[in-house]
From TrEMBL:
Residues 640-659 are annotated as: Disordered. It comes from the Bacteria. Residues 1-63, 105-173 form the BRCT domain. CDD domains: BRCT_DNA_ligase_like (cd17748). Pfam families: BRCT. InterPro entries: BRCT_dom, BRCT_dom_sf. PROSITE patterns: BRCT. This is BRCT domain-containing protein.
């Protein structure tokens, strides 16, 4: 046990937990309050709960009560309490007593935070120094233990994020008294701590329990192997002045109770493998914490309503407390509804919960995924399939990310419709303002459509499955088959429906053009054009309606099911063909630039002539008639300060949105 951090959890049938912790400390162990990466052993009794789950997830050694009993049989007896001094020390005596052997604290660097029940922090620091510990002022790389009391703030969050061992006041006191340190100051410590715990329990509200659940949720979030926590800020308890401000506004008691526990919440996370993220942002109490009407917030809840924002989930969707503007003079807190609404659509908002504790618990259950109050609820205008998929993934068992290696195929999110390619190199950029947004890890990718670019690794994941896109991308897979309906179903699964057209460096392109270019790129350009033309001719011969809406059955082969869900799982043949022609336009530019030949030399004249019958191919015809060498595509938001990221200046850095 010497030098190991141990945690006890669950109910022990034959052991007293406090005595067991003190005995472990005498064996040289450090007693932790929560399971972290720094924990070496977890001792479990009955009903072990979340600490056991977390230990298993982190691969921490777990032992039962029988093993603990056997271990404690070797523990030395507790040292007697120090006798009070017979007389004051002479003026020349040292300011503090010499260090005593105190297993668990001796030789450790500790930091104190929060308010203690039995002593002031200065008194605790003096006792710790007597125990042989070094007391630091801030949490850093050298910190071994953070000892915290009530209302602990940023130091506690910093320690948790660094994986520093945590210790409560009671745990510290147990170690000190076991070593005979503390004397009169710690006399009756157990009774005083028990009285404080009873007082806390008596004054606890439902929000007290929710705040504890939120802290535990954050710990579990940090422990997940598939998640990166990017922001973790839990405010301290709001002071009396702030709580009086809220009461003067006659806000619901739930809100006062929330701020009495946490003066602000800001947690953000993302999956290490895209896509999916979460955010909760409850602002601290300020002069802006008040109910206002539509003239101030423009949410359109109605002229007879006023609202106070409680959770700024995204810039386009927030949760509000909404109540009637008028109330009888001298009345108490008015009933308020908890409504999530998109910007300016308050009248169409939905009730997210019946109380703030219910809201916060539902938010945790949904992983704070943006728009979670709308997830899994039908909406005739908007699909939240992307967010629904993130909630489902969050609730499922965590899956560790697949490492990205040179030569692997990857999927990325730079373009609005996504893309795929092959990894050519990996790079870690120096810390900089640019890297705050992109992250420091980059992947050099040869995009399927032809561009070589650097993409932030946080938008990239290793491809581990085959789908319609991968199968149709094979050059031996002909586009024209006997079952045209099945072929178009697979094509739309691969490249998506036509959503819009957008201008760029090589002209107007349909939204599904870049995926189409990637799908066709494995074929010689002339052969790819011929197959697309043959496919369109086959549709005309079969008498299929180009613009009719066609239903699509989801089968798991889709490149982007969320995009298809946005179109209610329907598409048109013309939308697929337009995407394929747009893809050919991208490939024409790549082919001309690579070979340094004019556009008119890319294909035989008979193929150019066949394009004359297709209205959607006007821009492609123009490229294939050009007497100039076509420029390679240059995508928006490229070349984003490559020097600051220590990347080559001649290759694009795709660090924008892709639109």
């Amino acid at each position: 046990m010497i030098g190991k951090t141990v945690v006890l959890t669950g109910k022990f049938s034959e052991l007293d937990r406090a005595e067991a912790e003190a005995a472990l400390a005498r064996l040289g162990a450090t007693i932790g309050s929560g399971v972290t990466k720094a924990t070496h052993v977890l001792f479990v009794g009955e009903r072990a709960g979340s600490k056991l789950d977390k230990a298993r997830a982190l691969g921490i050694e777990v032992r039962d009560e029988a093993a603990l009993k056997a271990l404690l049989a070797a523990a030395p007896a507790a040292a007697p309490a120090a006798a009070p001094a017979a007389a004051p020390a002479p003026a020349s005596a040292p300011a503090s007593a010499p260090a005593r052997a105190c297993p668990g604290l001796s030789g450790k660097t500790v930091v104190l935070t929060g308010t203690f029940t039995l002593m002031k922090r200065a008194e605790a620091a003096k006792l710790l120094a007597e125990a042989g510990a070094t007391v630091g002022s801030s949490v850093g790389k050298a910190t071994d233990i953070l000892i915290y009391g009530d209302d602990a703030g940023s130091k506690l969050e910093a320690a948790r994020s660094r994986g520093v061992a945590l210790m409560t006041e009671a745990e510290m006191v147990a170690l000190l008294t076991a070593a005979g340190i503390g004397g009169e100051l710690l006399a009756g410590a157990d009774d005083k701590l028990a009285q404080k715990a009873a007082e806390d329990a008596a004054s606890a509200t439902e929000m007290t329990r929710v705040a504890a659940e939120l802290r535990a949720f954050l710990e579990q979030l940090r422990a997940r192997p598939d998640v990166t926590v990017t922001v973790a800020e839990l405010g301290r308890k709001a002071g009396k002045a702030k709580l009086d401000q809220l009461r003067a506004l006659r806000v619901p008691q739930d809100l006062v109770d929330l701020y009495a526990e946490l003066d602000g919440i800001h947690i953000e996370w993302r999956f290490i493998e895209p896509s999916g993220e979460g955010c909760i942002r409850v602002p601290s109490v300020s002069q802006w914490t008040r109910f206002t009407g539509d003239d101030d917030h423009y949410m359109n809840f109605g002229e007879d309503k006023e609202a106070l924002m409680i959770d700024e989930i995204t810039a386009e969707g927030n949760t509000w407390l909404v109540r009637s503007r008028k109330a009888p003079r001298g009345s108490g807190p008015r009933d308020a509804s908890i409504i999530f609404a998109s910007a300016a659509e308050g009248a169409d908002g939905i009730i997210a919960a019946s109380s703030l504790p219910e809201y916060l618990r539902a938010a945790m259950a949904s992983g704070f995924v943006p728009y979670w109050p709308r997830c899994f609820k039908s909406n005739r205008y908007v699909s939240y399939a992307t967010q629904e998929a993130a909630v489902t993934r969050f609730r499922a068992k965590a899956v560790a990310p697949t490492p990205i290696a040179v030569g692997a195929r990857v999927e990325f999110e730079y373009f609005s419709e996504g893309g795929r390619g092959e990894v050519l190199a990996l790079h870690k950029a120096p810390a900089s303002r640019d890297a705050e947004f992109t992250g420091r890890e980059f992947v050099r990718v040869r995009l399927d459509e032809g561009t070589v670019a650097w993409i932030p690794q946080k938008w990239t994941k290793a491809l581990t499955r085959s789908d319609a896109y991968e199968r149709l991308r094979e050059p031996g897979s002909p586009l024209v088959v006997d079952d045209l309906s099945a072929r178009f179903d697979d094509l739309v699964r691969a490249i998506g429906p036509l959503a819009h057209h957008a201008g760029g460096s090589i002209g107007m392109l349909p939204s599904n053009a870049r995926l189409a270019a990637g799908l066709l790129a494995m074929r010689p350009f002339a052969d790819a054009l011929r197959q697309v033309l043959d496919l369109r001719d086959a549709v005309v011969r079969a008498g299929l309606e180009l613009t009719a809406s066609r239903p699509l059955t989801q089968n798991g082969d889709e490149f982007d099911p969320a995009e298809l869900s946005r179109f209610h799982w329907s598409y048109t043949l013309s939308g697929v063909l337009t995407g394929l022609i747009g893809g050919l336009q991208i490939l024409a530019h790549h082919e001309s630039a690579r070979r340094r030949v004019p556009g008119r030399e890319l294909v035989p004249a008979e193929l150019s002539a066949r394009l004359a019958k297709i209205d959607a191919a006007a821009e492609l015809r123009e490229r294939l008639a050009s007497v100039e060498v076509l420029a390679a595509p240059k995508w928006d938001h490229a070349d984003s300060h490559p020097a600051a990221l220590n990347l080559p200046p001649d290759e694009p850095v795709l660090s924008g949105t892709g639109f």
